[in-house]
Amino acid sequence: LVAGWALSSFAGGVVKRLAARSPRIDPTIVPMVQTVTIWGIRIFVVVAVLARFGVQTASIITVLGAAGLAVGLALQGTLQNIAAGIMLLALRPLRAGEYVSIVGKGEGTVQEVGLFLTRLEQYDGVHLSLPNSSVWGSTIINYSRNPARRLDLELEVSDPDRVEEALASLRTWIE
Asked: Are 63 and 88 in contact (CB under 8 A)?
């Protein structure tokens, strides 16, 4: 039991270090992955030690499964937000620092994509926190993803000969 407990802490530390070094894993989920690793090993170790002492573990595993189901049903909305948060972190339709619009919910610069909430800062400085399930279930318009965007302008020109001169000056202004 003591060796398993120490092994779980060691494995959690290894997972944390490996995940923190990887550029593909978001730092937001590193503590969650570490905790799941530690407690997954610890639960397995406790059940294995009880089985070694002759305790019937089938009923314990059944109780753990039923408790997991009960907790899952009680936290259904929270688990939905966590699942949506994982999808947002994995698929990355929005990242910190990008200006996005969540259709029907709000728009602003992404401050954080957490496990439960996505935080935006609107243009007027107001912070907007949206549950991940509502962000994931909405259309996301990302204005910052591409380095350049097209801007269509309709202009009325009274002197067609001056159009080329105006476009040349506009080009130098943009560059």
From this structure: no
